[in-house]
Design goal:
Blueprint lengths: L3 E6 L11 E6 L2 E6 L3 H8 L10 E4 L2 E4 L2 H13 L4 E5 L5 H14 L2 E4 L6 H10 L6 H7 L2 E5 L3 H4 L3 H6 L9 H4 L1 E6 L4 H5 L2 E4 L5 H12 L8 E2 L2 E2 H13 L2 E6 L1 H4 L5 H14 L4 E6 L6 H12 L5 E2 L6 E2 L6 H6 L5 E5 L3 H4 L2 H7 L3 E5 L5 H5 L2 E3 L10 E4 L5 E4 L12 H15 L2
Amino acid sequence: MTEGTHENIVCVFCGCLCDDLQLEVQNNIITTNENGCAISKAKFLNHADDRLEGPAIRENGASKPVTLKEAIAKAVDIIANSKRLLVYGLSSTENDAHREAYKIAEEAGGVVDNTSSVCHGPTILGTQESGETVAALGEVRHRSDLVIYWGSNPQFAHPRHMTLHTRAAGEFIKDPKTERKIWVVDIRKTISAGVADRYIRIEPGTDLEVISALRALVRGKELDVDKVGGLSVSDLKEIAEVMKGAKYGVLFFGLGLTQSKGRHRNIDAAIRLIQDLNSYTKWSMMPMRGHYNVAGANKTSTWQTGYPYAVDYARGYPRYQPGEFTAVDMLVRGEADVLLNIAADPAAHFPRKALKHMGNISIINLDPKQNMTSLIAEVNVPTAIAGIECDGAAVRMDGLPLYLKKVVDPPENVLPDRDILRMIYDGLRRAKK
């Protein structure tokens, strides 16, 4: 790869996909990362650490090194003999790898799910119910005069989000300190709340009640209670009036809204609140997506299958049913007999009942790094890191696709996810002839 300075590199950490990194490469090693946040610097500068040393197969409880050809053959044999394949992950790899994963799921008559089923799945269900009021991050910076982070802590999870998009000056917002207000709505005072212009504390599990109350007040209705979610009616009236008076408002929301009591009903209510506000002024809303390409996984799944996640091919055509074809639910029920894990670490994040079943089935793990899942996988195949060691495309939290550049070469004989998955698919096709 070219030595020297690489500019306008897209960061492959979170859904912000910051595209202004400047990297210095010497002897195929990234030596500096300008403009990246602390997490971005760690990811790029330490990308060679904790790598899977090579393809390996676990036999009799011990992992033994094998050639890539042997690992692929073993993976093909496991999948070809599976009765209920589960393909999971995809949110930390690029879009071309997604396509190959869907082909494998279809060929094997299995299920393909991505990590949104355990984070922003309720967001998708809410938008399917009530529509979508979208904006671009550029619009937010250039036009918004009121920004609300609800159940989200961007300073921790998306470190440059405020700096680049809500604290930065725009075309029509010349002085964001005086012309733009930032509010944080949460159950506790986070570090983001500490730097916001206003912190609004609500009681745990009352998001739906508070949003519903705001909807009523925006529509001119009176409330027959004194408090909702720990907020007085007078405070709620003042919040509703400020929201109605904004020239351009944006609601960013995180897992504090999607995973609290109410789940997709919270999102449904929030969308309808934004729609109500649009009778008076201009408002948009956007989920704070975590993994850098989880939005891409939803997009590519929809392009290929017609559905954003939890897609089953058992009948030869795609079917969609969250709660039935989602990864955690399938594992908890003991339904999946093989797990093809791609660029994720379910063993580190899934609930105990799901982990118990994972310990009883064959796991094929594709990932650049050692992780909890690699420790229990029957087949481990190391892959190149997209956006660092191979190119590709990813989708930002606002739906904008961005091109990921290759800046250094991967370790010897290590291929991108898309190539490994294509080899598995081709082997599966041959095995079924």
